[in-house]
Amino acid sequence: MKKVLALLCALCMLFALAACGQSAAPAASGAAPAADKVFNVGVCQLVQHPALDAATQGFCDKLTELLGDKVNITVQNGAGDQPSCAVIASQFVSDGVDLIMANATPALIAAAGATGDIPVLGTSITAYAAAFEIDEWEGRSVALNVSGTSDLAPLDQQAAILHDFFPDAKNVGILFCSAEANSKFQVETIKPMLEDFGFTVKLFEFSDSNDVAAVTTSAVGECDVLYIPTDNTAASCAEAINNVALPAGVPIIAGESGLCAGCGVATLSIDYYDIGATTAEMAYDILVNGADVSTMDIRYAPVFTKMFNADICSKLGISVSDDFVAIG
What we know:
Strand order of the largest sheet: 7-6-8-9-10-12-13
Radius of gyration: 25 Å
C-alpha cells in the first residue's frame, strides 16, 4: 500500500509540473494573447512641437480606447537629440516592452537600431525609404521589424500653393535642416517643381537649431518667399524663424500645420492626431492579432487640408481664398 501511495504522489507531482510548464510556455506566433495579458508600449518622441505632440496624443488615445486597462504606455521625449532617442529606445528594449512607437525619423532610426525583434511603428515619418536609405521600396520594409504611418503631403500641390499665393515672386528659398533625411528628400522632390513654375530656387541649410537664425537671415536677404518642408528642427525653432522672416516681410509656405502656426502663411497639411490614431490601430493588430510588422504596408493620411495663419497673413497684408481653413 505504501508503494502504491508513493507512486500516486509521484504521478500527481509529475502532472502538476507538466501543467506549470504548459502555462509558462509562450503563445505561438499569431496566436491570441491570454485574456489577462497587459501590454507594455514605449513611445519615443523626438522633440516637443504641436505636430508631433498631436500624433503622440492620437496614438495614446486610440490605443487606450482599443485596449483599455490592458495596456501601459510610457512616453519619453528625446529633446531633439537622436543619441537621446537611442538611449530611450535601448531602455525600452531592456524593459522588455511589447512594441515601440517612434515619433519622427531620428526616433525611428534609433528604435530600429536598438532592436531587431520588438515591433517598431513609426509616425510623422515623411519617407521611410529615405530614412533607411532603401532604393527599392514596395510599401513595406520586409527586412526590418518596422512599419507605420507617413505625414507626407503632396509636394506638387504645396508647390502649386506657393505659386498661387506669390505668382510674381522671382527667388524662392528652401530652408531646411541638412541633418534630416526626410527634409533632404522633400527638397530634392519639390525644387524642380518650383523651377517648373519659373522660380529661381536657392537652398539654405542649417545643421541644428544653433544655426537657424543666421541661416534664416541669409535666406530672407536673398529671397522673395521661403518654403520650409516638414522638418522637425525647423518646427521646434518656428518662433526663431518667424522673428527673422516676419520683420523682413518675407512670407513662408510651410510643409505642415504646426510649422505654419509658428511662422508660416499657408500650408497643405495632414491631421497629425489622425495618423497617430492610425498607428495605434496598427499596434493593436500586431499586439492582439499577431500581425507581422515587417509585412504591413506604410499607411498615409487620406485627407489633406489647405490651412492658413490668419495672424501672419494679416500682418503681411495677404488675402486668402475661401477654400483655406484658419489654423485654430
